[in-house]
């Protein structure tokens, strides 16, 4: 079948561990055998017991108390320790028959952008163990309530992407909070939801002119040339494309899993599948569309509550 590993990364609290659990639960309902790998030496608890857990090799708490390091230095030390002890990882990997790993990563962005530590773990899996890899990068949906925050989030995703050089999927997590009005402006609840929804639509398929004018409206004129440069960058590279995610919505999780499978060409003997919920689109008689159209449709369904999954709650706007 081949060996596959998807790394779930993103800033602290962006929903990585929750999404790992949701992906595993969804894969289980499809009868698929996937394994959780914990690469976060500071993790506390998991819904599913990790099959491989870096804390069995080294834990952040021990490193901090024994070496007197702070949390960030301690984390870097833990990764260096892991890389010095790859035989441990090798032994853990060797016990699998079906290798589809869902890897929960630490939230410290500098691990992906300032060091090559994560990159070396990825290379070890790809080169020494023939894993096909994919990296998911989560950004919380509150990044879309302000264009300058969106730029910051997009640029951090881009710098991690350039550093790691593996198939990449950007995810806007917790979009259900937008529809509840928890994220966005301070107007009335329904107004806030609508505004947030419009923001999200704008950022899923950004119009460069609109992005530039709203960035210019909230920044010093001296920064307008920089805004224009960032908008060009955002417009020119596909890093700007985000898949919306609600970890509590099975359809959303299913769509993400299908994008991950597609990125890694999971099941190479089978016909490669387009990253979409095929049954739903076939039922609706839709022909194949481009990826962005798909994302927009999924997003529309998510926000309008047309989830089509038994037991999944609709989202009120
Ligand atoms: N509403 C909503 N909440 C979510 C979603 N995903 C995660 N959360 C919540 O966000 C919080 C953080 O989620 P985690 O999964 O622990 O985030 P994390 O990225 O693993 O955090 P660290 O490991 O500390 O970096 C928790 O309270 C989750 O319940 C989502 O899709 N919707
Ligand atoms: Mg976590």
UniProtKB/TrEMBL annotation:
Q: Which Pfam families match?
A: ATP_bind_1
Compositional bias, Acidic residues, is annotated for 280-301
Record field: compositional bias (Gly residues): 308-317
Highest taxon above the source species: Eukaryota
- InterPro entries for this protein: Gpn (IPR004130), Gpn3 (IPR030228), P-loop_NTPase (IPR027417)
| Record GO terms (molecular function) | GTP binding; GTPase activity
Give the span(s) annotated as Disordered.
266-317
* Keyword list, A-Z: GTP-binding, Hydrolase, Nucleotide-binding
What role does it play? Small GTPase required for proper nuclear import of RNA polymerase II and III (RNAPII and RNAPIII). May act at an RNAP assembly step prior to nuclear import.
Oligomeric and partner information: Heterodimers with GPN1 or GPN2. Binds to RNA polymerase II (RNAPII).
Q: Which family does it belong to?
A: Belongs to the GPN-loop GTPase family.
**Protein name as annotated:** GPN-loop GTPase 3
Species for this entry = Jaminaea rosea
């Amino acid at each position: 079948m081949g060996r596959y590993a998807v790394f779930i990364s993103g800033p602290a609290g962006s929903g990585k561990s929750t999404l790992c659990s949701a992906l595993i639960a969804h894969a289980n309902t499809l009868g698929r055998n996937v394994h959780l790998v914990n690469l976060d030496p500071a993790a506390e608890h998991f819904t599913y017991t990790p099959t491989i857990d870096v804390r069995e090799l080294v834990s952040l708490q021990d490193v901090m108390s024994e070496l007197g390091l702070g949390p960030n230095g301690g984390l870097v030390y833990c990764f260096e320790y892991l890389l010095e002890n790859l035989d441990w990882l090798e032994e853990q990997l060797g016990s699998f028959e079906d290798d589809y790993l869902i890897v929960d990563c630490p939230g410290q962005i500098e691990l992906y952008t300032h060091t090559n530590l994560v990159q070396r773990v990825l290379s070890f899996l790809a080169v020494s163990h023939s894993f096909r890899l994919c990296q998911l990068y989560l950004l919380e949906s509150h990044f879309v309530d302000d264009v300058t925050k969106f730029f910051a989030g997009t640029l951090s995703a881009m710098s991690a992407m350039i550093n790691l050089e593996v198939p990449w999927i950007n995810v806007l997590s917790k979009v259900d909070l937008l529809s509840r009005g928890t994220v966005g402006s301070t107007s009335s609840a329904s107004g806030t939801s609508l505004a947030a929804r419009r923001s999200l639509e704008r950022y899923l398929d950004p119009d460069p002119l609109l992005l530039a004018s709203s960035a210019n409206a909230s920044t010093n004129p001296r920064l307008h040339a920089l805004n224009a440069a960032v908008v060009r960058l955002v417009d020119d590279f596909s890093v700007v494309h985000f898949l919306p995610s609600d970890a509590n919505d099975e359809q959303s999780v299913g769509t993400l899993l299908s994008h991950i499978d597609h990125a890694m060409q999971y099941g190479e003997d089978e016909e490669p599948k387009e990253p979409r919920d095929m049954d739903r689109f076939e039922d609706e008689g839709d022909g194949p569309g481009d990826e962005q159209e798909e994302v927009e449709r999924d997003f529309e369904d998510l926000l309008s509550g047309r989830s089509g999954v038994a037991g999944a709650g609709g989202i009120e706007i």
